[in-house]
């Protein structure tokens, strides 16, 4: 179970790194000002948060349902949601910074 928990965490880290890479590529290709760059980053962070919430729902309902039944409060369900919460926080910060700039 510990190995599976680590793989869920590292998969979340990998997805966060891919989101940062996508944000960097989109910023380089489409930004003309700092405000546009911040808004691109906010949109990518929101998409990342939404996809992590989808991934959490697939973990809880999909092929790991038997593992989920073994525990009432499964940390595997909350790990992707914590990544989604972080992504939403980053999106709020970037959008707020875009309003200030």
Summary?
The protein is mostly helical. The protein has one domain. The protein contains four helices and no strands.
List strands and helices in order, with pairings:
Blueprint: H1 2-30, H2 34-61, H3 65-69, H4 75-100
How many beta-strand runs? 0
Number of helical stretches of at least 4 residues: 4
First-last Cα distance: 47 Å
Radius of gyration from the alpha-carbon trace, in angstroms: 16 Å
Largest sheet: none
Order of helices and strands: HHHH
Count of domain modules: 1
Share of helix, binned: over 70%
Query: Helix- and strand-based class?
Result: mainly alpha
Question: What is the average per-residue confidence, as pLDDT, rounded to a whole number?
Answer: 85
Shape: elongated
Strand content: under 5%
- Taking pLDDT < 50 over at least 5 consecutive residues as the criterion, the unreliable ranges are none
Folded structure, characterized:
It is a single chain. With 101 residues, the protein is mostly helical. The protein has one domain. The chain contains four helices and no strands.
Relevant terms:
4 helices, 101 residues, mainly alpha
């Amino acid at each position: 179970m510990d190995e599976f928990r680590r793989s869920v965490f590292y998969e979340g880290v990998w997805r966060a790194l891919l989101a940062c890479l996508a944000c960097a590529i989109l910023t380089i290709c489409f930004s003309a000002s700092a405000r546009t760059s911040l808004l691109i980053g906010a949109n990518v962070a929101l998409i990342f948060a939404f996809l992590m919430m989808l991934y959490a729902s697939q973990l809880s309902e999909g092929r790991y349902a038997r593992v989920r039944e073994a525990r009432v409060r499964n940390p595997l369900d909350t790990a992707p949601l914590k990544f989604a919460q972080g992504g939403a926080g980053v999106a709020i910060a970037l959008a707020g910074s875009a309003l200030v700039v």
